[in-house]
Amino acid sequence: MFLPFFLALRRAGVPVSLREFLSFLEGLAAGLATYDIEAFYYLARTSMVKDERHIDRFDRAFAEAFKGLQAIPAEAVLEALALPGDWLKKLAERHLTPEERAEIAALGGFEKLMQTLRERLAEQKERHQGGSKWIGTAGTSPFGAYGYNPEGVRIGQAESRHGRAVKVWDRREFREFDDRIELGTRNIKVALKRLRNWARHGADEELDLPATIRASAEAGYIDVKTRPERHNAVKVVLFLDHGGSMDAHVRQVEELFSAARAEFKHLEPFYFHNCLYEQVWRSARRRWDEQTPTWEVLNRYGPDYKCIFVGDASMSPYEVSHPGGANEHWNPESGATWLARARAQWAANVWLNPVPEKHWQHTPSIGMIAQAFEGRMQPLTLEGITRAMKVLG
Fold this sequence. Notes:
Blueprint: H1 3-11, H2 18-29, H3 37-48, H4 55-65, H5 98-103, H6 110-123, E1 136-137, E2 143-145, E3 152-154, E4 165-168, H7 187-192, E5 198-207, H8 209-219, E6 226-232, E7 235-241, H9 250-263, E8 266-272, E9 279-281, E10 291-293, H10 294-300, E11 306-310, H11 318-321, H12 335-345, E12 349-353, H13 364-372, E13 377-379, H14 382-392
Parallel strand pairs: 1-2, 2-3, 3-4, 7-8, 7-11, 11-12, 12-13
Antiparallel strand pairs: 5-6, 9-10
Helix pairs in contact: 1-4, 2-3
């Protein structure tokens, strides 16, 4: 009965062998995971996953094979604010007509919004639902969950519904992009090959046929000559926007990431969320406790590196223009300040945007990022990547 699970793992790219699968079955037969779904999951993962890079693929295959076996609750984890959990329980969801939405006014700017939030936290003593002032659910207040306000702080809501929050006060976990995903097309690799600078380095790795022929003719016997293999000497710092609205573009970014891994020997990837700030992450899974100061990245990789940003640039304008405007934390300096520093360090820079170019004009923050990059924003399409490689070259 577990053969479809084994086949799903193989389809997902988990290099599980028949011997490992049989070990998993032996564990089940020994009663190591009887009537316990969590124990079953860990037994399967321990038996058939030998590299942590494959854990995400395993999780997807597990969900495919046993979909509906157990619903995992997605409760928000609040760390930035000590708000009682029952204040944020979803009892109802606010549905407004277009006319009602038009009547709801924003508070009038980012500073006013943050100041009002501090005042409400100091005043509020109990859970609230509905209404237009207190932190709660199903209302038109700028603070809370499952309601509506054209400009507010989302607290305790797992998903984005209207895309209007300027700050999200929840801790969210994201999985890393899979750099081994099978590309749907080789054209991305072909486009990236336009950015190359071939050089020979390292130990002798490949046959030097002309030198071998010449040396053999001179010596009177076969004298094999080798030379260092040629590699693309281009060095790239890659910044990947992750989570939130980028969830809709994961497939495109994974294909680009996989192709970049194959084409660039010197590739340094980092994750950020929405805009560049004072911290970035090497691992999306460990983003909350293994942060890398952006200054460290700027100082470690010299101006000979090419710099590529990948993101939809879709956020509150405050996240670009204001200190404290970041979606998930309080940033001492604006995102625009850090983008300017990155562009000053790496003169060869571009921003690749997965949002179709015809829609850019509808999102103010995309225009702000495009302006900051002085026309170097390109769409994440084959044509856009080709143009970006010409810009970087």
